[in-house]
Amino acid sequence: MTGRRVTIIAVVAAAAIGLGWVMFTALGRQLATPTPDAEPPPPRPAAGSTVEPHIAATLFFVAEDGVRLQGAPADVPLRDTPAAQARALVEAQLATDAPAPLVRAVPAGAAVRSVFLTGRDDAYVDLDGAFVSGLGGGSHNELLATYAIVSVITTNLTPVRRVQILIDGREVETLTGHVDLREPLRKNEALIRTP
Amino acid sequence: MRRTAALLCLALTLAVAAAVAFAQAPAPAPITVVSAQGRRNLAVATVNGGDYLALDDLAAALGLALRDDRVTGTTTVSASGRSAVLTPERNVVSAQGRLVSLAAPPLRQDGRLVVTPEFVTRVVSLVLDRRVDFRRGGRLLVVGDLRVPRVVVRGEFAANAAQVTLEISPATETSVAQSPGQIVVTMAADALDAAVPSVPAQGLLQGIRPGDAPGTLVITTGPRFATHRATVQPVDAGTTRVVIDLMAAGADGLSATPPTPPPATPAAPTTPTAPDPAPPLLDPVTAGFRTIVLDPGHGGDANGTEGPGGTLEKHITLQVSRRVKALIESRLGLRVILTRDDDRTLDQDARAALANNNRANLFVSIHANAAVRASVKGAEVYYLSVDRASLESRRAVQQPNAPMLPQLGGGARALELILWETAQIRHLEQSATFATMVEASLRSKVEMSPSPVQQAPFRVLVGANMPAVLVEIGYLSHPEEEKALASAAHQDKVAQALFDAISAFRTQVEKTTP
Q1: Residue A145: pLDDT above 90?
Q2: B459 touching A, CB under 8 A?
Q3: Contact call for residues B220 and B182 (beta carbons, < 8 A)
């Protein structure tokens, strides 16, 4: 009796340890820094539907003052590689409508072509031409759109420290004649408003 | 008796004064008629303070026929079946069936009919059926569509070196050739509208004068001249600059020609003379705050942003830049270069390169802004953020073992090799100071944005090798501000604010520069 009970406890403990190892070690390799302020998981879907795991991320929109960016929480699908996760973050940044009273910082209709990460903590985000044509000019618009993309990656994938934007697969000097995009950019904290 | 004597004295005094005044009045310089047939100088008489040309001289130079009608008191000027009829003392002339009103009428002077240059450009041009331009500065009457660029000549002179700079507009193909005793600058032109300064003769350079061949300028070299260097480059929209450095033998490592002793009397002693004192360097940068480059943002294919009322950024930036240029040139006497003076596409590097090539003391890029929130308005000033400027690039700027370069006048200086990407870094402190001055000046005249001074990685500022800022003069996306930015009154306010800031910055720089 005692030996059987001990065996059962040992099996359950081993299973728990194994599950924990899978969750924290294997997943941790993919995302170097887990999001610290993860919200409770969304409600369980109805039986029979597939469950897509999400990360609690921060997307960036134009603040009420109109001159800075402001972060807003959003669920972004969890991906199995950092590059795929970076792509999912940018896709969410491009596709998500701003929660009131914020407004979009990036043009609607723009799409991600690809995202690469390098061993030097740099990310390369290749966007299509709609990202440029939808901007409408002005250094202010260009700054906010550029740093929305930079911030969404550097904030949510902290190992990435710099981001370079490419357009249609090519390096560009600027989007509309202002911000130097020939090299990766760091996050610009001065441009982000804390709510 | 005493009254008569007093009157005689007064008359004598007046006569002497008039004679002295007459003797001192310089004879007016002739006006040169330039046409496809050649050049011809015409004597000028001054009447009522204005220049007048004898009509018969003009007719001979241009192949015009003159016919006086004694009955009506008129004179007919004709050529190839076309004619004009003028009456002395009357401002209105009939030319080819049109009445032309002149500012000053034809006159009779010493029995000859004389006319103003305006008569030539407005009446004779109709008779000839050809365009006639009067270049007041160069005193040229240009007949027909000839290439007559304006050439401004400046010179700087030191003991062992001299520099002659020509600014030629419109841009003209130019070559420089050296021959014994002179350097000849040849421009692809039919004639030159040149303002040539008088140059004191000295060892390197004896004088500058228009050449005998059309489109040439001759620099007469002196006995100490050894060789020259010339650079020809486009520097502005429609302007070519030619810089010619004249070097003495022995200067800058040159020794091809033995130095010729200075002119001396045959009895002069042959003992060696003391060398000239160390000459000042010919470096405009060290010679003071002299050149400002204004960069009207966008242009050509790049409209920049567009206001809800259709106002284009590229037009506003050019208009404001021109206003600032006019203020600076007229009130500070500094040289102002616009990166573009018309609606043309210009890449980012060309803008800063123009400032670097002209050794500008200040670079100001002028833009108008746009925001997704239409309520955002106000002006902003930016200077470069050094977010991605690595320590390595800073070290590259401060090369401790830079190669040495022999320089004009003897000696050597460190060769200044500056990476384009790091050119602005060493000027950041001054750029920040200037940005603050621009903000304060703008704030006194126009509304500022909630973030009036910012740093940003703006492409156009990266390569500027001098203090540099980008000014957003307002938001075209704000409907009211768009109207203001398009108005002359608001543009004047912005231009005045920029002028005030530039003037204050210049004063500060000159105070702190030894």
Answers
A1: yes
A2: yes
A3: yes
The dihedral region occupied by A116, where left means phi > 0, alpha psi between -120 and 50, and beta the remainder, is beta
The Cβ of residue B33 has, within 10 Å, a number of other Cβ atoms equal to: 23
Q: In this structure, is the dihedral angle defined by the CA atoms of residues B261, B262, B263 and B266, taken in order, positive or negative? A: negative
* Domain identity same for A17 and A101: no
- Write out B351-372 in H/E/C secondary structure: HHHHHHHCCCCEEEEEEEECCC
Residues A75 and A162 in one domain: yes
Closest Cβ–Cβ partner in B302, B388, B459 for A185: B388
Residue B459: φ, ψ to 5°: -60, -40
Task: Verify that A18 and A85 share a domain, yes or no.
Answer: no
Q: How confident is the model at residue B381 (pLDDT cuts 50, 70, 90)?
A: very high
Mean pLDDT of chain B: 81
Count of domains for chain A: 2
Residue B236: pLDDT band with limits 50, 70, 90: low
A17: domain range? 1-30
Q: How far apart are CA B341 and CA B170, in angstroms?
A: 12
In a domain, A46, yes or no: no
Number of neighbouring beta carbons within 10 Å of residue A44? 8
User: Does a structural domain hold residue A1?
Assistant: yes
Using CB atoms, pick whichever of B367, B373, B455 lies closest to residue A139.
B367
Q: Are residues A15 and A106 in the same domain?
A: no
* Distance separating the N- and C-terminal Cα atoms of chain A: 60
Q: What angle do CA B289, B295, B297 make, to 5 degrees?
A: 160
Nearest to A141 among B303, B370, B462 (CB): B370
Residue A117 lies in a domain: yes
Give the domains, in start order, of chain B with CATH numbers. Answer: 31-143 (3.30.457.10), 150-253 (2.60.40.3500), 291-512 (3.40.630.40)
Q: Is the pTM of this model over 0.80?
A: no
Q: What is the DSSP string of B254-268?
A: --SSPPPPPP--TT-
Residues of A in contact with B368 (CB under 8 A): 138
Cα separation, A91 vs A106, whole angstroms: 11
Q: What token pair was written down for B172?
A: 């003209």
pLDDT score, position A29: 40
Q: Does B376 sit within 8 Å of A177, measured CB to CB?
A: no
Per residue in A58-97, pLDDT tens?
Answer: 999 999 999 999 999 999 999 999 999 999 999 999 999 9
In this prediction, residue B21 carries a pLDDT of: 47
Report residue B177: phi and psi, to 5°: -135, 145
In a domain, A119, yes or no: yes
Q: Are residues A66 and A161 in the same domain?
A: yes
Q: Is the ipTM of this complex over 0.90?
A: no
Check whether residue A16 and residue A96 sit in a common domain.
no
Together in a domain, A79 and A157: yes
Closest C-alpha to B84, from B75, B131, B72, B73: B75
Beta carbons of B468 and B364 less than 8 angstroms apart: yes
Going by the DSSP 8-state scheme, the letter that residue B26 receives in this structure is P
The neighbour count for residue B100, using CB atoms within 10 Å, is: 18
Cross-chain residue pair B458–A173, CB shorter than 8 Å: no
CB-CB contact of B309 with B479 (8 Å): yes
CA distance B249 to A58: 71
**Is the pLDDT higher at A92 or at B409?**
A92
Strands B448-456 and B379-384: parallel
Residues in chain B closer than 8 A to A67 (CB atoms): 371, 376, 449-451
Sign of CA dihedral B113, B119, B125, B131: positive
Q: Are A79 and A135 members of one domain?
A: yes
